[in-house]
Design brief:
The chain contains four helices and 13 strands. A 13-stranded antiparallel beta sheet has the order 6-5-4-3-2-1-13-12-11-10-9-8-7, sandwiched between helices.
Length: 298
């Protein structure tokens, strides 16, 4: 697709490489306290609990910055607004609208979870004025030149693979996360052929069910990518990831997503997450209005 953001870090080309991980979806989530009795949970139940704990409110809105650090040390910044609206169970609709840099202004990605299936995703390109479906074979492409994939903006499919608890582990922590909370390690194997990963290791906080670290291994057993939560804060009573980093092991670079101005339970309408709203530019109009309101505030 001409002009579609993707490809390698810092670039815009698109190439096939299926993936099944979740990052921006995690940033649009929040953890709730986990009740006692978790010692009896199996691997699938731990992942389901982690997934459900990330959606305690009906909806969410936040501003975000995606900082891409290339292997030569140069930095690229992308800014915008993210929206999330819960559906049934762990299903949710998500919308990511970019405003900076100018080359990405107005670009938007709509991701809608489906039960038992991969998420449907549409990319709105301002130059075309239309939303175009993200093909399955491009779900593992780099999103807007970062270390994150298109599929990182969708729900974790707990239905896929075999999940096994490996026991308690120290929580991987930095900064404000440097506490004594115990974590549990869950290994996921036997993933279907469409997945590039042969094994995924999730280190889950036993208190709030947030994944503190996720390691992705390729089919040869080699570590390929590592995701870490760098900062968590309580927003409106919810433990909310505020900074998350994805590192590609083969590269010296990395990408970090941070959230600000987080709000929950705003009453977002279902129409906000429709293809029709995308194509009439409703997200762009909302961004302009928000910018105007902010500039006119005393």
């Amino acid at each position: 697709m001409p002009g579609m953001p993707g490809g390698g870090k810092g670039g815009v080309a698109v190439g096939p490489c299926p993936s099944t991980v979740v990052i921006l979806a995690l940033l649009l989530s929040a953890g709730a306290a986990v009740a006692a009795g978790d010692a009896t949970l199996n691997g699938r139940q731990w992942l389901q609990r982690s997934q459900l704990a990330r959606f305690p409110a009906a909806d969410m809105k936040a501003s975000f910055e995606m900082l891409v650090v290339l292997s030569d040390g140069s930095r690229l910044s992308r800014r915008g607004t993210a929206y999330r609206r819960n559906g049934e169970g762990a299903l949710a609709d998500r919308l990511y609208v970019f405003r900076e840099p100018a080359s990405l202004n107005g670009l938007a990605l709509l991701s809608r979870d489906r039960q038992g299936k991969a998420a449907d995703q549409w990319l709105y390109l301002p130059a075309y004025g239309r939303a175009r479906r993200v093909a399955m074979h491009t779900a593992g492409d780099a999103f807007v030149g970062s270390d994150f994939f298109y599929s990182d903006l969708a729900r974790v499919r707990v239905e896929d693979g075999t999940h096994r608890v490996l026991g308690e582990r120290p929580c991987v922590a930095d900064g404000s996360l440097a506490d004594k909370s115990a974590c549990v390690a869950v290994a996921t194997t036997d993933l279907p052929g469409g997945y590039p990963w042969g094994r995924v290791l999730s280190i889950i906080d036993k208190h709030n069910a947030l994944p503190r670290r996720v390691e992705y291994y390729d089919r040869d057993g080699k570590l390929a990518r590592v995701m870490t939560i760098d900062r968590v804060s309580t927003v409106e009573g919810f433990a909310t990831p505020r900074s998350i980093t994805m590192k590609t092991v083969a590269s010296a670079g990395y990408s970090t997503l941070t959230l600000a101005e987080v709000s929950y339970d705003l009453g977002l309408e279902a129409d906000t997450f429709s293809i029709e709203a995308l194509e009439r530019g409703a997200h762009v109009q909302a961004a302009v209005k928000a910018s105007t309101d902010a500039s006119s505030a005393p």
